[in-house]
Design brief:
The chain is of the alpha+beta class. The protein has helices spanning 3-94, 98-112, 131-141, 173-192; strands at 119-123, 148-154, 159-164, 167-172. 71% of the residues lie in helices and 12% in strands. Strands 2-1-3-4 form a 4-stranded mixed β-sheet. Strand 3 (159-164) and strand 4 (167-172) form a beta hairpin.
Length: 194
């Protein structure tokens, strides 16, 4: 072989080797591109899933917050209504006709009297609960009926306080209405947190 043929053979072999290397490089680039596209698609899916999860969690937090705020507003509205109802109840209790007022106070005294020998403290302006009324309640209490009207007066509004020694049972309108209110507010609080 002459020199020209040897050079031509070397160039031909080099060209064939270069084509083979280029083909391998193209396959490698294609494989890397495919792998990159798969990774990119996987990353997009993960990003979308995370975004949806975060969105769902954010939406759930917003919904929970909105529910809680609505419940608070509802409770505030109910409390306002309770204020109005209980203020009206105080007015109505104080404004009851004498006979109805005495009947209610007699029932409360009979239920509240523990021994029957308590003192009955009334409001400084009370005129419906007097000695005659106490005598009638004592008759209803029977053998244990020894209640007596105290000379001590208080700022009770309607109602009374039974006192025996240091023990006092407060049946003033304020306390009775407050007890009813606490019971209702407890029910409202349960409603808020359930």
């Amino acid at each position: 072989m002459n020199a020209e043929q040897v050079v031509e053979k070397i160039l031909s072999d080099a060209a064939a080797g270069a084509e083979k290397i280029l083909a391998q490089a193209a396959e490698h680039i294609q494989a890397e591109q495919t792998k990159f596209n798969e990774q990119l698609e996987n990353y997009k899916k993960q990003t979308l899933a995370l975004a949806q999860k975060e969105g769902t969690e954010a939406r759930l937090k917003l919904l929970a917050s909105a529910r809680m705020e609505t419940a608070r507003e509802n409770l505030a509205g109910k409390r306002k209504i309770l204020d109005e109802v209980f203020n009206e109840a105080k007015k109505r209790l104080a404004g009851l006709p004498d006979e109805d007022y005495r009947r209610l106070m007699a029932e409360l005294m009979i239920k509240s009297a523990q021994t029957g020998d308590e003192e009955v403290i009334v409001d400084k302006n009370e005129k419906r609960i007097n000695e005659d009324f106490i005598k009638q309640v004592n008759q209803s209490l029977g053998a244990r009926g020894n209640l007596r009207l105290s000379s001590e007066r208080g700022n009770l509004g309607a109602g009374f306080v039974l006192k025996r020694g240091k023990i006092k049972i407060n049946n003033s309108a304020e306390v009775l209405i407050q007890q009813a209110r606490e019971a209702l507010e407890g029910a409202l609080a349960k409603e808020l947190f359930t």
